[in-house]
Write a structure and sequence with these properties.
It is a single chain. The protein is mainly alpha-helical. The protein folds into two domains: 48 residues; 70 residues, no CATH class. 70% of the residues lie in helices and 5% in strands. The chain contains five helices and two strands. Strands 1-2 form a two-stranded antiparallel sheet. Helix 2 packs across helix 4. This is Large-conductance mechanosensitive channel. It comes from Lutimaribacter pacificus. GO terms for molecular function: mechanosensitive monoatomic ion channel activity. InterPro entries: Mechanosensitive_channel_CS (IPR019823), MS_channel (IPR001185), MSC/AndL (IPR037673), MscL_channel (IPR036019). Homopentamer.
Length: 143
Amino acid sequence: MFQEFKDFIAKGNVMDMAVGIIIGAAFTAIVTSLVGDLINPIIGLFTGGLDFTNNYVVLAGEVPEGASLEAAREAGAAVFAYGAFLMAVVNFLIIAFVVFMLVRYVNKVKDAAAREEEAPAEEAPAGPSELDILVEIRDALKK
């Protein structure tokens, strides 16, 4: 049973998946930083600092007027946090677009590399075929 498990783990698919998960986790941090630190501030600049995160509706409980979403949650109120959801959707769309652009670029690079490999190398000029040599020998013997 242990040998079967070793064989399973040693298979290429499992190792590829493990590497993919590790790289994906690291890539998530990069994309999250790209969106949060670079893209969202630019969008905020054009939209006048629009941020829906603190928009909510109190369903039950007491919350001081103008309190942030975090303060409302700490007060123990039941809140319908539609603003945080909207911001999560916007961030998802931005992240999905950035990942799409990266994958698109990587695919273009892969396609270009594949085309270079498929391009036939210049073949050396072919010498005379066996038939040509036999014909020359025949003609030389006739003389």
